[in-house]
Write a structure and sequence with these properties.
heterodimer, A: alpha+beta, 5-stranded mixed sheet, 31 strands, disordered N terminus, B: alpha+beta, about 35% helix, globular
């Protein structure tokens, strides 16, 4: 049997076994599942299989959200199997075909997922060579592999192909497993993966993504395009005051709409109709009476005062060294500053979409969630089903940079499908996405250092006062983590966590604290928090790297020199040095305020590490005095994520990080009054416009083939805001301590 | 419900629809095309962009009555003889899309721009593309692709 896949791994053709392929992927996936050995983390067959024609399939329980991770995994598998890249396909995410490896999560795609695929592919090659040795009657160490053909060194006539050895049958080999499911899943085999010096595919340029042509030609089937026979279109109706629930529903108000139905269960209210436009009209027309609740929010203008005054419900010491209190008691001087970061929205290109078909003894899900396995688990729990009876098909969506609204719409669809006995597709309107997605938390950060008589830093205290970064958790694996589950009364299971900075400043003593406060509304809140690209990172590092900059100027030291003098890690120093050199950094101990008419120019630096990846960024900005507009004309980024698998896609991934995080730094702030979120579309929640896009993003990739790869999906999101704020200071002398760096704030500050 | 005749990618379709229904839903649900996509329903992002007599238009906010007897072109309709349009070829060459959901807006607006102004300057490109949204942050790759298409 041959299995060929594209995109997320839909079957497109087959050899000896004929499988009817009808997109959407439901039938194809059933066929895949029938061809799979049981999904056990200790079985090699869970991760790798060889088709009858000798091509290979890598099966991964992670998902490429558009950065091209798929081709990275394929490169890692092809490299270890000694197959051409074109003969390796990757199936990702479908829950009946892959094991739970965490989905897209924490930039672990290559870092952890790739590591699993590499071990599995190396083990598969070892198994194949052992089989060949037996079949050819020669010792394994006398054999070599090229293009899936195992042959005797020096005697090419003695050979056998992967296809002949195992094609179409499952590997029976087993692996050691670390007993973790999700992103931490790791395996160990007997094989030794290749040395970097032996690489033919990894680290090379020119390996292109396989989804780009279909996307550009308008041929790729997205989540929103899936149509299931008998499917209804659903819309969920949200209250005008957050926390309110329906107390009366006038079903006659939508009587005029053909086939429109109401689903009302406890706090959940939705409508469904056979035609999408009718479902939209029904959601507008349905007359709902809502409970009278006290408006729960302080309003965006008072959010930082609220955070400062709120009681701490959990205090975490993220990191500490030495006796900070003693150092501050003995300090000759104390230097301190405070920074503020707003709630931010995923604001995906479209409000999320999902389809659920609840059947008698199981359920089918189509979703663009970045965590299909958890989506399955949560809906199984809602329905009281064994997760094995529920399958989630992984589809391409409108981007995903964390836990957006995808999981919530699937739970909505499950509730409605259960009630109506038909497949239900839910996609909200724009305001449902931007207004009701889980948010990145707002925060206040206090940073202070103790200085001795020689102006040496003797201690550093850093405190984040903040909402938990995942009070709605980082996945939808339990109804309690979703809006629908919370509206149906699931007992809440909040997670109280934030986390400190990642850097290597070697001050003699330090203490880094997260002081977590209670959510503004604990159930079904539009301001509930969950992971968004680099959870907590932009907040914390805006504060840390702005503060380090302020401190350098305060001490009369150049900001690059100050960082180089105080970071202790050699790779950290290397990225800072590389960025400064490439950007033509000019030494300064005062803001330079380079003026050209109405425009002021400046340069700012920031650096951070993230899970082993190091990034230093230099922003060159132009600030227009009369308007306060800031334009980052040029970025210089030095990036070290260990071994580079695909340099072309790494560059594009970094560019995406830089543009998106620039957007977050200069534009993005969730607005809300006392009742609800009021930034609900692209006018009220603007993002980076083409007119504001940088002219240049100059990227320096530092490759360490000998160091296993770490993540690249989020690292270059981390230092962005501070680099811009520091450049604004160099241009204007104005210190921006509140994000986003809005024109009105800059103009007011310069006045 | 009223009857509407639409000409989409050179083919004629008859659609029975609520007169208030935007073109987007007719293209997706009645004509059966996928690529114009719902992004905001407010004409603020471009994910639903099609060309009407050569001009980019947001199908999410256009009524059917407005486009009767006019030529509607979608992303899937700009290729010629099975070959990508030069703008598509440039977007492929530059490996522009990440999620790709926004592509209709960028590609269709660029097609229209280059028809009117075959050699636009950097600032003319930025002006023409202003208002479109890309959440993945592929702005630089888009600019490279538009310049490449203009050279083709």
């Amino acid at each position: 049997m041959n299995l060929h896949f594209n995109r997320r791994g839909f079957l497109t053709a087959s050899g000896s076994l004929t499988i009817a392929v009808a997109l959407p992927g439901g039938k194809a996936c059933a066929a895949v599942a029938n061809s799979r050995a049981p999904l056990d983390p200790t079985r090699l067959s869970t991760y790798v299989s060889v088709n009858a024609d000798g091509s290979a399939v890598g099966w991964i329980g992670k998902v490429d959200m558009g950065q091209g991770t798929e081709i990275g995994w394929a490169q890692m598998v092809a490299e270890e199997l000694d197959l051409p890249l074109a003969r390796v396909t990757i199936v990702q995410g479908h829950t009946n075909a892959t094991i739970n490896m965490g989905g897209a999560s924490g930039s672990t795609g290559i870092w952890r997922g790739g590591a699993v695929m590499r071990v599995a592919a190396a083990e598969a090659r070892l198994a194949l060579v052992s089989m060949a040795a037996e079949r050819l009657g020669v010792p394994a160490n006398a054999l070599e592999v090229d293009d899936g053909i195992v042959s005797m060194k020096g005697d090419g006539a003695k050979k056998i192909s992967y296809a002949q050895l195992i094609g179409g049958k499952h590997f029976v080999e087993t692996l050691e497993w670390n007993k973790e499911i999700g992103s931490n899943l790791a395996i160990k085999g007997k094989a030794t993966p290749k040395k970097p010096s032996e690489y033919k595919i990894i680290g090379k340029t020119g390996h292109r993504r396989r989804d780009v042509v279909d996307k550009v030609m308008g041929r790729l089937e997205y989540m929103v395009d899936v149509k299931i026979p008998g499917m209804l279109h659903g819309r969920v109706i949200r209250p005008p005051v957050a926390g309110a629930v329906p107390t009366a529903v006038d079903e006659a108000s939508i009587k005029s709409i053909q086939g429109a139905k109401v689903v009302w269960e406890k706090g959940f209210i939705g409508v469904a109709a056979p035609r999408e436009w009718d479902a939209i009209r029904a959601s507008w027309l349905l007359n709902v009476t809502w409970s009278d609740v006290k408006p729960p929010f302080p309003g965006v203008d008072k959010i930082y005062d609220h955070i400062r005054a709120a009681p701490v419900i959990k205090r975490d010491v993220d990191k500490e060294k030495g006796d900070v209190n003693e150092a501050f008691a003995k300090a000759v001087k104390v230097f301190e500053a405070q920074y503020e970061w707003p709630f931010q929205s995923h604001a995906n290109m479209a409000p999320a979409c999902g389809i659920v078909d609840v059947q008698k003894d199981g359920a089918r899900i189509w979703s663009a969630t970045q965590k299909p396995h958890y989506c399955r688990d949560g809906i199984a729990m809602l329905l009281g089903l064994d997760p094995d009876k529920v399958n989630c098909v992984s589809m391409v969506g409108p981007g995903s940079y964390g836990r957006n609204d995808s999981g919530d719409v699937c739970m909505d669809a499950a509730v409605m499908s259960r009630a109506l006995g038909k497949p239900v597709r839910v996609q909200g309107m724009r305001r449902d996405g931007t207004g009701w997605d889980p948010k990145a938390p707002a925060s206040v950060h206090t940073s202070r250092v103790a200085l001795d008589a020689d102006n040496k830093v003797t201690a550093w205290y850093f405190e984040s006062k903040v909402f938990s970064k995942r009070d709605a958790f980082n996945n939808e694996g339990d109804p309690a983590f979703t809006l629908a589950g919370q509206l149906l009364g699931a007992p809440l299971k909040p997670t109280l966590i934030f986390g400190g900075p990642e850097e290597s400043y070697g001050f003699p003593a330090f203490q880094k604290i997260s002081n977590i406060i209670a959510p503004l509304l604990d159930r079904a809140s539009p301001l509930r928090t969950a992971h968004m690209r680099d959870p907590g990172g932009p907040q914390v590092h805006f504060a840390v790297e702005s503060f380090i900059d302020e401190l350098a100027y305060f001490l009369g030291v150049d900001p690059v020199e100050f960082r180089l003098a105080n970071v202790t890690d050699a790779r950290d120093k290397a990225v800072i040095r590389a960025a400064a050199e490439k950007a033509g950094w000019q030494r300064r101990t005062e803001p330079r305020k380079i003026a050209n008419g109405d425009v002021l120019k400046g340069q700012g630096v920031a650096y951070a590490t993230r899970g082993g990846t190091r990034v230093a960024m230099i922003a060159e900005v132009e600030v227009t005095k009369s308007t306060g507009r800031v334009w980052v004309r040029k970025w210089t980024v030095a990036h070290d994520c260990g071994q580079i698998v695909n340099p072309d896609l790494l560059r594009l991934t970094i560019e995406g990080n830089v543009c998106q995080s620039t957007s977050r730094a200069i534009h993005e702030e969730v607005k809300f009054d006392d009742k609800a979120v009021t930034s609900v579309d692209w006018l009220t929640y603007p993002i980076l416009d083409m007119k504001d896009a940088p002219e240049t993003v100059d990227i320096i990739l530092i490759d360490h083939p000998e160091i296993p790869p770490t993540g690249a999906g989020e690292s270059a999101t981390r230092p962005t805001a501070a680099a811009i704020a520091n450049a604004i200071f160099d241009a204007t002398g104005l210190r921006m301590r509140r994000a986003p760096l809005l024109p009105a704030r800059i103009k007011a500050g310069m006045a | 419900v009223a009857k509407f005749e639409l000409m989409v990618d050179g083919k004629a379709y008859a659609v029975d629809a609520d007169p208030g229904m935007p073109l987007l839903y007719a293209l997706r649900d009645d004509v059966g095309l996928n690529n114009p996509r719902f992004g905001c329903g407010l004409a603020q992002c471009g994910a639903c962009t099609v060309l009407i007599d050569g001009d980019p238009l947001r199908s999410c906010s256009t009524t059917l009555a407005n486009v009767m007897n006019r030529s509607i072109t979608t992303l899937a309709g700009i290729e010629k003889d099975g070959k990508p349009h030069k703008v598509q070829a440039a977007f492929i060459e530059e490996q522009v899309p990440q999620c790709g959901y926004c592509l209709n807006g960028w590609v269709m607006t660029t097609v229209a721009l280059l028809e009117k102004n075959p050699k636009p300057s950097d600032s003319q490109i930025r002006d023409a593309l202003s208002g479109l949204k890309c959440r993945c942050g592929t702005h630089l790759a888009i600019l490279r692709a538009v310049k490449r298409a203009a050279m083709a």
